[in-house]
Design brief:
The protein has 4 helices and 6 strands; from the N terminus they run βαααβββββα. Strand 3 and strand 4 form a beta hairpin. It has one domain. The longest helix has 9 residues. The chain has about 100 residues and is an alpha+beta fold.
Length: about 100
């Protein structure tokens, strides 16, 4: 079960951790990323959408960041683990998969 947390502060720290991992190889594999200014400008392309707790991921807050152009999400916990939202719950995915998903049109 997923619970949205009300009155949570905006938290960009998990997102910033992930963006530092964006490599040239990752950029080369995504047509959309090739048109973006890597790392520093990424944060400006996203909106903080909120925080959730998923009973399938005990003890973790998952922060939701939505890309302003693709409308796709990056879901990241405090430890920098990325998640995909499927079938009403969050499941762990690799960082590169999360980045590619968020930037695909």
């Amino acid at each position: 079960m997923v619970k949205t947390l009300e009155n949570e502060q905006t938290n960009w720290i998990p997102f910033e951790k992930i963006i530092k991992l964006a490599t040239p190889e990752l950029v080369d594999n995504s047509p959309f990323l090739k048109t973006q200014k890597v790392r520093e400008s990424f944060i400006h392309d996203f909106m903080f959408m909120g925080t959730v707790i998923d009973s399938c991921v005990p003890g973790k807050r998952i922060y939701l960041y939505k890309h302003s152009e693709t409308k796709r999400y990056m879901n990241i916990d405090d430890d920098g683990q990325c998640y995909s939202y499927k079938e009403s719950f969050y499941q762990p995915i690799k960082t590169q998969a999360a980045l590619l998903t968020a930037f695909e049109c």
